[in-house]
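fwd from M.: "can u put these together and see what the complex looks like"

so here's what she sent:
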Amino acid sequence: MPPPAKIRIDLNSAVPAYRQIVDAVRVLLVEGALPPGSELPSVRRLAMDLGVHFNTVGEAYRELAAEGWLDLRHGRGATVIARGLPAAAPERLQEFRTRLRSLVAQMRAEGVPPARIAAELRSLTESLKS
Amino acid sequence: MPPPAKIRIDLNSAVPAYRQIVDAVRVLLVEGALPPGSELPSVRRLAMDLGVHFNTVGEAYRELAAEGWLDLRHGRGATVIARGLPAAAPERLQEFRTRLRSLVAQMRAEGVPPARIAAELRSLTESLKS
DNA sequence: CTTAGTGTACAGTGTACGTGTACAGTCAAC
DNA sequence: GTTGACTGTACACGTACACTGTACACTAAG
């Protein structure tokens, strides 16, 4: 029961491996695929699966723990814990808006048809209702 | 007539300044705010406005030129040129999808209400029709 | 106690980002 | 044609970051 949550990263990407790991695991956490009580693979195990060094995974786990998602204890592994949503910081919203616009602009610049982009955005909007 | 296109960057952000400049200018280009023939401010001028070194702006301009947006010539400045859309690379779409999901997950993780996120996404979808 | 598992700390290496400085091309004034 | 003020470019440097290797410390099972 613990292995189903598989993540993948792109070692050729410009975005750092540890950040890709943080982002990928956070998606699973937010979407409920990793409910409180779940045990994450050990840093060495996940590192082997992803093809990176275990300290890189450790760095990612520590960041997730700092965000309040994980209970990370020496010698015992990483466990998902319950986490209340923080109060939304309004000034962050502007940054998110900018990043969304940039991402859409990049998609358009690389030739993704606007209709296709719209479909992706609608799909994302739908997934928010769950 | 050339000065209205103002951009802003956040020097405290973790994302590199030259990348913020590339992203911000690309948004203006994609949205048509900088039509072919427009002249961009000189590297030194824009650098002063943004509070960075002119080589940082130069780096951003070179990247935009490499993407086919700018005609950048020694001693003459940077001019927006007409640019056909490249054929969309299907494997890139998967990456964009991942980045969109990551961004939305991060917004949710930081407490932005789902309804608010949905509103932002709808707003973006609308802007694609223009 | 031993052992095999866990996460952690820290130094070393390569790379990326931003800057300072010197250089080279362009154009208008004279 | 020369000058001068503008343009972008090249390159070396300092600093910070991403990743790794290695040694360490904690935990649970035998």
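replying to her w this: Residues 42-44, 54-55, 58, 61-62, 72-78 of chain B lie near DNA strand D (CB under 10 Å from a C1').
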